[in-house]
């Protein structure tokens, strides 16, 4: 049934989302084999919940946040099965979200972004291309699935017109001096890099350019709190660009409603997750209000 759900919905879900569901299905298959348990609709109960959580957090060493994503997909498919009249088991609705910290919102500061923009990478053409893609993401807010496929014919006047892969929304992105300069450097189209390669190369880029500010990372694995300090370059990924755009736009005074026009966010709550890290703006407002 899980596999059938994937096949049925793949036409309406982004490729990355389908990959996540296939990963969860693989975890379920491995769990069933390891526990010598046949997974039926009726077996998705409290006992399954506790055993599956233990399997994910202990055997697979997942953080609670990642384990929650697996549980969420199980609940979606069980809900779908109920809608199809295949089961009346609603035990899955009682599955509790595991305690976890929000994904660390790692973004580039103004100084770090300027360092990247002006860093001499003449001797490192591969990293120069990665730098250009990251800076484009930082100054447009595009996801990897969107900035990795930008074509010259999507530039309409001084706007970049994008049909997003994840939500299939149309975005009309006004170009700025950063994004405009990068697009002009690639009249035949941007470099093509898979998300996996980009995520690996962008860490190398950050290390090469000295982005090594220590960042505290806290997460939970089961009931265990895990805390570590890592250099920022180790935490860079394709999503850093989107986070940087939202955070810096807030710091520069752009209203959240306007930012949502660029990012495609429909939920202000999701966008406002970025506000808590806008420390420079927070300090500025405190000084403005209180001196």
**Mean pLDDT across every amino acid position:** 90
Beta-strand content estimate: 5-15%
Overall structural class, as computed from helix and strand content, comes to mainly alpha
Into which percent range does the helicity of residues fall? 40-55%
SSE order in H/E notation?
HHHHHHHEEEHHEEHHHH
Largest sheet: 3 strands, antiparallel
- Gross morphology is globular
Tell me the distance between the termini: 62 Å
How would you sum up this structure, described in words?
The protein is 52% helix and 10% strand. It has helices at 2-9, 15-34, 46-59, 64-83, 110-118, 125-140, 144-147, 177-185, 195-208, 239-251, 256-263, 268-271, 279-290; strands spanning 155-156, 159-163, 170-174, 214-221, 224-231. The strands form two sheets. A three-stranded antiparallel sheet has the order 1-2-3. It has a two-stranded antiparallel sheet with strand order 4-5. A hairpin with a 2-residue loop joins strand 4 and strand 5 (224-231). Helix 1 (2-9) runs antiparallel to helix 2 and helix 6 crosses helix 9 (195-208). The protein starts with a helix and ends with a helix.
Short description:
The protein is mainly α and 291 residues long. The protein has helices spanning 2-9, 15-34, 46-59, 64-83, 110-118, 125-140, 144-147, 177-185, 195-208, 239-251, 256-263, 268-271, 279-290; strands at residues 155-156, 159-163, 170-174, 214-221, 224-231.
